[in-house]
Amino acid sequence: SAKSGGRGAFRFFEPELDEIMHTRRNLERDMRAALAGHQFELYYQPFVNTATGKTSGFEALLRWHHPQRGLVMPGEFIPLAEETGLIVPLGEWVLRTACAEAAKWPLDLSIAINLSPAQFRSKELVPVVVGALASSGVAPHRLELEVTETAIMHDSEAVFAALGQLRQLGVRSALDDFGTGYSSLSFLQRFPFDKIKIDRSFVSELTSAKAEAHHLARAVVRFAVSLSKTTTAEGVETKEQLDILREEGCAETQGYYFSRPVPASSIAKMLPRDAGAAVCAA
Ligand code: C2E
Ligand code: MG
Ligand code: MG
Ligand code: MG
């Protein structure tokens, strides 16, 4: 075993660690080039009004077309982008690109954008958001900024201050991945979120056979309503999950059941005919 191997164990692990560091450095180098080389693209996933079935908006989700590795998902590069600070210029690109795209949609559709804690620390966030809205012409109330519970726990004051300023301009915010962090309910109450996004891990538990999962979903929805916040369930994959969430009063739903995230060029097909034609022509 590794333990009884003594020094041999270290020799065994060294090359591996070296390889990880090497891969990391390459990824960091490639990411800097990618921003300049237009290798990033935003995909969009609709979120749907649970009662009416109508699309309420789209969430922008980042993709990286790596020249050698192909399509790279955010889980692979966002953490490194955060560590290296690259998330600040990358996040600015996301805000500007997503707002420019949303400017082509019907006016009742929202655009949701994910933000990292490092973007709040940069102090540039509020002017960058204001700039993205101004240059695209998108009304502030159509923009929804998503922040994870875990992110807030590390940087609550910076997040609180920026979201407060943006809220005064009419920009909305959502607590993403709710239920995966460890924040207390009173802590969440302090934050001026408009929306709570119930994490996929809860939604995947929702089957007719599991009564406790229903009760949990119901409790989260009621908690949100009691704080005057709306709810979106993430990761809805089946009709059964949708039906349960509707019954429990969840306002919005999002997931593969409706659509996977798609490139901007595919959005027109998902909109009502007239609006779709307008987007195609734009
Ligand atoms: P998120 O914001 O919670 O986004 C939801 C993730 O779940 C997305 O993964 C989406 O593709 C996936 N998903 C949606 N519906 C379903 C479903 O029905 N089943 C399953 N299994 N998965 C579903 P993705 O695109 O890989 O993004 C992962 C995370 O990366 C996001 O989680 C978000 O935290 C982060 N991220 C993505 N784009 C950006 C960005 O532009 N900036 C920042 N800071 N973070 C981003
Ligand atoms: Mg999100
Ligand atoms: Mg989420
Ligand atoms: Mg997530």
UniProtKB/TrEMBL annotation:
GO molecular function terms here? catalytic activity
Alphabetized, the UniProt keywords read: Coiled coil, Membrane, Transmembrane, Transmembrane helix
The record lists the organism as Bradyrhizobium hipponense
Q: Name one GO cellular component term.
A: membrane
The name on file for this protein is: EAL domain-containing protein
Q: Where is the EAL domain?
A: 24-275
- Name the source's superkingdom: Bacteria
